[in-house]
Specification:
It is a single chain. It contains 13 helices and five strands. Strands 1-2-3-5-4 form a five-stranded mixed β-sheet. Strand 1, helix 12 and strand 2 form a beta-alpha-beta unit. The chain has 489 residues and is an alpha+beta fold. Helix 1 packs across helix 4 and helix 2 packs across helix 4. The two termini are 15 Å apart. The protein folds into three domains: 217 residues, no CATH class; 80 residues, no CATH class; 131 residues, Heat Shock Protein 90 (2-Layer Sandwich).
Length: 489
């Protein structure tokens, strides 16, 4: 039985997200639903906490790191100086990491950390001890801790204190300054300004009240601009941290190249395994039956005149052999893309595939009318679905299958094709070398996708294949946070 339900929203099971690590790119900690001036004020408490603590932390970091670092430099003549300098590198790394954590707490987008253990650099005591001397990140962290952060922090901390004092003191001074005894100040700022603006004036007014009014106006100005100033000072620290403490673009490219190489290797291995399995199946099945059919036809030819009855029996056996051979070839051909897939697309091909299954299949087609799926993605998705349905029929003892297919918009990262197969069988499925699921796993990895298996003993079994792609035409899927693993009702 096959049904198509494009509006199904059932999810009894927990949500399983499959966004790749690259697609979990840095996200802002600050709330994204608030914008404008109000959002700036909402960030003031966190940014104030960050800026107030900045200079004390920077001075402590400078004192500790400089003491250890230059002590190590002075002791380089002896062996112990090397280890003291290593300690200084790790101290600078600690203070740099603290700065990155504080920036996230202040609401700034996450800065990608360096991969300190890349290429096995920290494997073993001696490698971990001497790698800071050749790793440029450690030297940049030392530069940030000893020079950049102290200088920037003194400036930002001073501006923070002055701006906050002017804003609070100016707007509240009219209330509390009257309780403080004052001697003759001799200089009043408001009187000086009036004399400069109106030379030779003879205005008669209370200079004390004028001073309170001027302080209030200045306090309001400082208070209104305070969110912009705090944001600018925080961005100054953020820029310094991104330039000195973050991971390098070249490292990300190296990781991506390694992932591409691994994906290509997995794809080649999966294709090779598929071809070998197909060769073995043809050799053990249809080829043997065709040899038997050839022998039967030869025997029929010999007995046609001398023993017609025996020849007729052999003809019946030959017909049965031909039928079984045709059935096996049809079963093997399911691993190839059918003409229906090329003519009408993935949705129609999956409907046809589900209708031929010996176990009833509920098909949930959530593909948009214009999915934009590349032909290669459609072929691989069809092959994965066909293999998964075949595995369920052969091994699970299931009485019902649910096949769910959907396209998910991942924003700038492109789109994802989500394919879920759920059955109510005996469970216990796992990825093991040499088995069918291992081949599917390698095939999906070769497409830079993810292959998930959730199959506890006793069932149900839920298997998801998630394949990224760039649409060939503009699709119209509803944005989703992640694919939802379906469960049989």
């Amino acid at each position: 039985m096959t049904t198509t339900d494009p509006t199904s929203t059932e999810t009894n099971r927990e949500t399983m997200t499959t966004e790749p690590a690259s697609s979990r790119a840095a996200e802002a900690v600050a709330p994204k639903h608030r914008r404008g001036y109000g959002a700036l004020w909402a960030s003031v408490p966190r940014e104030l906490g960050f800026l107030i603590l900045t200079m004390p932390i920077a001075i402590v970091g400078l004192s500790v790191a400089a003491t250890v670092f230059f002590s190590g430099v002075g002791l380089l003549a002896v062996v112990v100086g090397v280890f003291v300098m290593v300690g200084a590198f790790y101290v600078a790394r600690g203070f740099g990491t603290l700065e990155l954590v504080r920036l996230e707490w202040a609401g700034r987008p996450r800065i990608e950390r360096p991969d300190w253990a890349r290429d096995g650099r920290e494997a073993g005591f001696w490698r971990a001890a001497f790698v800071p001397f050749v790793d440029g990140h450690y030297w940049l962290y030392v530069l940030h801790t000893l020079i950049i952060n102290p200088i920037v922090s003194v400036f930002t901390w001073t501006v923070t204190i002055v701006w906050l004092s002017m804003a609070l003191g100016g707007t509240t001074g009219w209330f509390w300054q009257g309780f403080i005894p004052e001697d003759d100040r001799g200089f009043w700022l408001n009187e000086w300004l009036v004399d400069r603006l109106f030379p030779g004036n003879d205005f008669g007014y209370d200079v004390v009240a004028g001073e309170r009014l001027l302080e209030f106006v200045l306090g309001v100005i400082f208070l209104l601009t305070l969110p912009y100033v705090f944001r600018g000072l925080t961005l100054l620290h953020d820029g310094a941290a991104r330039g000195l403490l973050g991971a390098w673009r070249s490292e990300a490219l190296e990781v991506e190249v390694a992932q591409l190489a691994a994906s290509r290797g997995a794809a080649v291995q999966a294709e090779d395994a598929s071809l070998r399995r197909l060769e073995r199946d043809i050799h053990d099945g249809p080829q043997q039956r065709l040899v038997r059919l050839q022998m039967d036809l030869a025997a029929i030819e010999r007995r046609m005149e001398g023993d017609p009855e025996a020849a007729r029996e052999l003809i019946g056996e030959a017909r049965e052999q031909a039928r079984e051979t045709l059935d096996e070839l049809r079963a093997l051909s399911r691993g190839f893309a059918p003409p229906l897939l090329q003519d009408r697309g993935l949705a129609s091909a999956l409907e046809s595939l589900a209708s031929r299954s010996p176990v009833p299949v509920v098909l949930e087609n959530l593909l948009p009318p214009v999915s934009g799926l590349p032909a290669a993605i459609e072929r691989n998705a069809y092959f994965v679905a066909a293999e998964l349905l075949t595995n369920v029929v052969k091994h699970s003892d299931a009485t019902s299958i649910r096949l769910r297919v959907a396209v998910r918009d991942a924003g700038a990262a492109g789109h994802w094709l989500d394919l879920w197969v759920t059955d109510n069988g005996s469970g216990g499925a796992r990825i093991e070398a040499g088995h069918g699921l291992a081949g599917l796993h390698e095939r999906v990895l070769g497409l830079r996708g993810q292959f998930l298996v959730d199959s506890p003993a006793g069932g149900p079994t839920i298997i998801g294949a998630h394949i990224p792609f760039l649409p060939e035409s503009a699709p119209a899927p509803a944005p989703a946070s992640g694919p939802v693993s379906p469960e049989l009702s």
